[in-house]
Each structure stands twice: as C-alpha cells, then as structure tokens.
UniProtKB/TrEMBL annotation:
Source organism (scientific name): Campylobacter estrildidarum
Domain Mg chelatase-related protein C-terminal: 407-498
Superkingdom of origin: Bacteria
Stretches that traverse the bilayer: none
Residue span, Magnesium chelatase ChlI-like catalytic domain: 198-400
Coiled-coil segments: none
Gene3D superfamilies: 3.30.230.10, P-loop containing nucleotide triphosphate hydrolases (3.40.50.300)
Protein name (database record): Fis family transcriptional regulator
UniProt cross-references to Pfam families, sorted A to Z: ChlI, Mg_chelatase, Mg_chelatase_C
Taxonomic classification: Bacteria, Pseudomonadati, Campylobacterota, Epsilonproteobacteria, Campylobacterales
Length: 501
C-alpha cells in the first residue's frame, strides 16, 4: 500500500492521507472514504488521463482510500495524488503534500480554492513539502513555511517521484513583506510602517484618540457617539494603522480568508478593515448562502477592524446577531452541504449620532427630537449588545481652536512598546480577547484598585461581563504605562469609558 498526503477543505483543514492498493479481483478503480461528487467523477478523468500517457491498467482491482474515512472530502485537487499512486505503485514515495486537478491531456491544473488551501496549510503545518501545479508555483513559493515544487504534467510527476530529482522542480521566491520581520519571544511579527490615513488629520478629540490607542492595543470594541462631522469615521478608519504588528500566522490567515471571498491575495502589512453598509444583508455580514456556507464580513475582519457606521440604522436582527462573534470570537455557519466555523477576533468599531436629528450634543443647534424618538432610536441597540462594548466615547463638538497633538506614527510606536511589554509576560491573546479565566493571571490589582472596582460594582450595578471589560481595558491602560500591576487610576479611567444608562 502506498500513501501520499492531500488536504481536505473544511473549517478544520484536515490532513488527508491518500492510500492505494492493487488486489486480486475484477479490474476496476474505486474511491472510498466519504468522497463527494467531484472526487467520484475524477475516476473517469484519471482513467482517460492515464491512458493518454500510455499507462496500461493491470488486471487487478485498484482501491483508493481517503483517510480518515469519517471526514467528508470535496474538491478536484485530489486528482494528482490519486494518479501518482496508481502510476508509481511499485515505487518508494517520499512524504509530500500533493494537490492539483488533471486535464485529459495529462496537464496539471489549479483550482479556485487551491491557494486558500495552501495558506491554511502554511498556518497549520511547519515546513511542509508541497507539490502544486506549475502555473501557481511561483506565487505559492512566497508563502512562508512551505517548500513548493511545481509540476506541469504527469510526465514531470513521474520524473519527480521516480528519479527524486526534487531540486529541478523547486520554486524559491521570498515575498519582500517577510524580509525584515520583528521577533518577540521567538515569534515572528510583520511591522507596519505605512500610515495611509493619519491621526494628525483629526483635530482635537483627545479622549477619542486615547480610546483609539486603548482599542488598538487590546483589540477592544469601541463605540463613538457624536454629531456629524465630529470625527467618528475618521478615527475608525485610522485605527488599523496604529494596531500592533501582525504575527506571521495572522497574515496567512487573513489572506486565506480573503481568498475564500474570491479576492486576489496580496500580503499586506496592515490588518483587515471591513466597512459594510447599513443596508447589507445578514448573509453578507455573517456568511451563508442557499446551500454552501460562504464567508461573511465578520470573518473577513478577523485580526483587524469591523466598522459599523450609522450603527442604529442596521437591521435589528443583524445587530442582535453580533452577540456570538463578539462573545465567542467564532461564527458558526450551517447549511445543507456544509458546516463551517470561522474565527472572529476583531475590534468592533461602531459610530452613531446621539439622536435621530443628530443635534443632541450640539451647543449651537437645537435638537428637534422628542424624548420618545430619542428613546426609540437608542433602544434599537439592546443592552446585551451594548454590554459587549468595551469603550464608549462621546465626541467633542468641533472648535476652531482644535489642534493636532499626535500623529499615527507616534501612537503606533507607543502601542508597539506596550504590545512588547505584554508579550514579555507570556500573554498570547490581546487584552480585549482574554478569556475570563485568564484575568486573574494577567490582571493583578493593587488594593486601592480592587476597592475602587468593588465600589463601582455596587454603585453602578455592573454585570460580570462589564466587570471583566473594565479589567481588560485597565490592563491595556497599564500596558501603555508599562505597569505590571493595575492601579486605582487605571480602574477609574477604564470606568470613565463605560456607557452610562
């Protein structure tokens, strides 16, 4: 029995062993192991391809097994591995991942999902040796963690595996993005030094800028409320440029998700920024479809920012559906033909007006809304969703005396120092995404800080989730000052960013 490795395309990216055996029996080629229609159809395609290469089928029964057999498999990229196992049944095969679709003339072709598979594989397996179609080999060789070998047709596949002349088919091309990485605790990060949008364009709004630094460092959720033109959207769109550098796995995962959205993958220094319109459908934001589970905006924002402008104007069902990705950092999509889970660790940023006419906070313009209209406008967002917001900022009204006091580069440098400080204590997750059971380890409090928090709990009737949010924000505030222990001032400032009822 011979084996090669392939990849199953699902939420777990299962490693599939393709096995073949020749046994006595009526001549026949069969594939077992929960293969879908595309794989079953490959039987006739592989037969025709092998005959075109002058291969003589033996008078034996050929059985191909896709192991583990309990996992459903789909995709035509299993063709090449199956064909190689049949062609070279009597040869000793080395350990390779083999992916590619076969044409009837023996040429090896790429598929739409192949680059996504390679990106997911690079994030899961270190230094995997992968045989791919030659037409994508050069681009695939830019992916870290993978050794890429490109083959054009079955004849080259025979030469590759039989003569083991691997170097002849190896592709080497390093992406410039990975040439000067930043190392923190032996982990590789990709530094960002581009600021296409700069906070120097935002005049005044000192509290909002401080909140942006906290949100960027800890990947906290933040809500801006203020009059039109006060700078809500400007702050939100500049947030990704000051966030901590992406790890290598985050870069790969971001591109893998983009490729699932049928987008051309270009490795980028900046984190993802997704900005769906308030008229977007639920399926486009959370993913879905009639039969197959398509990726949505909440998954595409993973590792970056998801920005909802005009927050109360989004459909009520969409707003309430945010609870799962904001709490569990995952989104589960179930359809007839597929069940998929995507990660949703992002900074949720929302912006809204204070009232329907938007003049409630204005000192010069009169608000024409009734109390009932304002209440109805605010109640469109439930308290359960609001409880998942870490930071609330009431934007100041603009003034002719407002000035710029800090740039994105300066903010980014401070955040990077605080990020390194947090990594050195062994913390893996962002402060805003810490699990509740980790708070005791990473959020030690001084006695005064604990007393202040206890007083706030009783006075403001804080829920357990709200208390944890205060601790997480306090952790980010302490990191910005490079303080290991959270003190009273950190708790007080974190409480100042809580939403008042």
């Amino acid at each position: 029995m011979k084996k090669l490795k392939c990849i199953s395309f699902d939420e777990n990216l299962d490693i599939i062993e393709v096995e073949s055996t020749f046994t006595r029996g009526l001549p026949n080629l069969s594939i077992v192991g929960l293969a879908n229609t595309a794989i079953k159809e490959s039987i006739e395609r592989i037969k025709a391809t092998l005959l075109s290469c002058d291969f003589v089928f033996p008078a034996k029964k050929i059985t191909v097994n896709l192991s583990p057999s309990g996992i459903p498999k789909k995709g035509s990229h299993f063709d090449l591995a199956i064909a190689v196992l049949i062609l070279l049944q009597n040869e000793e095969l080395d350990d390779f991942f083999v992916v590619g679709e076969l044409g009837l003339d023996g040429n090896i072709k790429s598929t739409n999902e192949l680059f996504s598979l390679l990106l997911f594989l690079s994030a899961k397996v270190k230094h995997a040796r992968v045989v791919v179609p030659k037409n994508i080999a050069l681009k695939a060789s830019m992916i870290p963690n993978l050794e890429i070998y490109g083959l054009e047709n079955l004849n080259e596949a025979i030469e590759f595996f039989k003569e083991k002349n691997y170097e002849k088919f190896k592709f080497l091309q390093n992406h410039p993005l990975f040439s000067n990485p930043l190392k923190i605790n032996d982990e590789i990060f990709i530094p960002n030094n581009q600021f296409d949008l700069d906070f120097k364009d935002v005049k005044g709004q000192e509290k909002a800028k401080k909140a942006c630094m906290i949100a960027a460092l800890g990947m906290h959720n933040i809500l801006f409320e203020g009059s039109p033109g006060s700078g809500k959207s400007m702050c939100a769109k500049r947030l990704v440029y000051i966030m901590p550098p992406q790890s290598l796995s985050e870069v790969l995962m971001q591109n893998a998700y983009l490729s699932l959205n049928s987008k051309e993958c270009e490795f980028a220094k900046t984190r993802a920024f997704r900005h769906p319109h308030h008229t977007s459908t639920r399926a486009s934001i959370f993913g879905g479809g009639a039969k197959n589970a398509k990726i949505g905006e909440v998954a595409l924002a993973n590792g970056g920012v998801l920005f909802f402008d005009e927050f109360p104007h989004f459909n009520k069902q969409i707003i309430e559906s945010l609870r799962e990705p904001l709490e569990d950092y995952k989104i589960h999509i179930s359809r007839v033909n597929s069940k998929t889970t995507y990660e949703t660790k992002f900074s949720f940023v929302a912006a809204q007006n204070p009232c329907p006419c938007a003049n409630l906070f204005s000192k010069n313009l009169s608000c024409i809304c009734t109390d009932n209209e304002i209440k109805k406008y605010k109640n469109h967002i439930s308290s359960a969703v609001m409880d998942r917001i870490d930071l609330y900022v009431a934007m100041d009204e603009i003034s002719k005396d407002d000035k710029t006091n800090i740039t994105s580069k300066e903010m980014s440098e401070k955040i990077l120092q605080a990020f390194i400080f947090g990594k050195k204590r062994g913390q893996k997750e962002f402060n805003g995404k810490l699990k509740d059971e980790d708070l005791q380890n990473f959020c030690p409090l001084e006695k005064d800080a604990k007393d202040t928090l206890d007083l706030a709990i009783s006075r403001y009737n804080l829920s357990l989730r709200s208390v944890n949010k205060v601790l997480k924000v306090s952790r980010s505030l302490a990191d910005l000052q490079e303080k290991e222990i959270i003190n009273k001032s950190h708790i007080l400032e974190a409480l100042s960013f809580r939403i008042r009822g």
